[in-house]
Design brief:
Radius of gyration: 18 Å
Number of strands: 25
CATH superfamily of the largest domain: Jelly Rolls
CATH topology of the largest domain: Jelly Rolls
CATH architecture of the largest domain: Sandwich
Helix content: under 10%
Number of domains: 2
CATH class of the largest domain: Mainly Beta
Number of helices: 1
Mean pLDDT: 93
Structural class: mainly beta
Strand order of the largest sheet: 1-20-17-22-15-14-13-24-25
Largest sheet: 9 strands, antiparallel
Shape: globular
Order of helices and strands: EEEEEEEEEEEEEEHEEEEEEEEEEE
Length: about 280
């Protein structure tokens, strides 16, 4: 059964002075979950150490502010449009001058979801989602931007994407077989339906769906509803409700800024496996 709540309802715990963590997805809140998710806030002039255990995967998505990630002598400047994927045994320091907020997710024992994990482990990767290619839905006005795929991160253990619903947009009822996933609302508002039960959505809401749970969303209000969603594992089957149109996505040849994207993706159906160029 879907678990949903707003981040404002989760009490923050102090990790150290100037650093607070809200535990969003936990085994206590979602028994059996394979994804752990925190929302972390760093005050100005603070830092945090990031350590990914052997066999695990992690990623974080910047929400507000700017930060500097230092790893092995290299330094990467990060802003609110960046998503960072971290392989096993990754160690780094994240520092901010004026404060930063981000989501931090982990998949413990990720090798169980990817047979090639040991032989071809994923690598460190930083993605600016505003430069990735935009795909348009052929049935409605929705837009899709892939942010975690086998080609981008080098593993089938996870899959992630950003979906944009213009006002009044609605998707088809469907469910997934072989994966759990969560959605985090970045902006706008709407209604999610889980096994046909309506759930109001607003910024900061998180919804976790079990494997095989039917769901679809509808945007409301006068602004785009934008959310990011991640699946574990990243390879699964999508089953559409009887008579519902199957989502088919067409390349636009541009990114969300209207510029040429950093790579190209061919059109495809959501009912098929992840294409090679994704």
């Amino acid at each position: 059964m879907a678990v949903t709540f707003n981040e404002t309802t989760v009490w923050p715990e102090v990790m150290k002075p100037g650093v607070e963590r809200q535990r969003l997805l936990t085994a206590a809140r979602v028994p059996g979950t394979r994804i752990l998710l925190d929302r972390i806030r760093l005050a100005a002039q603070t830092s945090i150490e990031i350590d990914v255990s052997a066999g695990d995967l992690a990623w974080f998505q910047m929400l507000e502010g700017e930060a500097l990630l230092t790893h092995g002598g290299a330094k990467v400047s990060l802003g609110s449009t960046h998503i960072v994927f971290l392989p096993s045994q990754f160690n780094a320091t994240l520092t901010t001058r004026e404060g930063v907020t981000f989501l931090f997710a982990q998949v413990p024992n990720a090798a169980r979801f990817d047979a090639g994990f040991a032989d071809q482990p994923p690598q460190f990767r930083v993605v600016d989602w505003t430069r990735e290619p935009v795909l348009d839905s052929e049935h409605d006005a929705r837009k899709r931007i892939y942010v975690a795929t086998p080609k981008l991160f080098g593993t089938k253990a996870i899959k992630g994407e950003m979906i944009i619903y213009p006002p009044g947009t609605q998707a088809s009822n469907h469910h997934h077989e072989g994966a759990e996933h969560f959605m985090y609302v970045l902006g706008g508002r709407g209604t999610a339906y889980a096994n046909e039960k309506p759930i109001p959505l607003r910024k900061g809401d998180l919804i976790h769906y079990d494997d095989r749970e039917r769901h679809y969303l509808k945007s409301e209000g006068d602004e785009d509803m934008v959310f990011v969603e991640f699946f574990v594992p990243g390879v699964y089957k999508t089953v559409w409700a009887e008579g519902a149109p199957i989502c088919t996505w067409s390349p636009t040849g541009r990114n969300i800024r209207g510029d040429k994207p950093v790579r190209e993706i061919a059109g495809h159906s959501s009912a098929s496996a992840v294409p090679q160029d994704v």
